[in-house]
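Board notes (copied after class):
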Amino acid sequence: MVTTTNLNFIKTAKQLQ
């Protein structure tokens, strides 16, 4: 189950790369 927090974490990780 994907939570909003996880979605935000994934977005941030992609921006860092």
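Comment from the instructor: The helical segments are 4-16. The radius of gyration is 8 Å.
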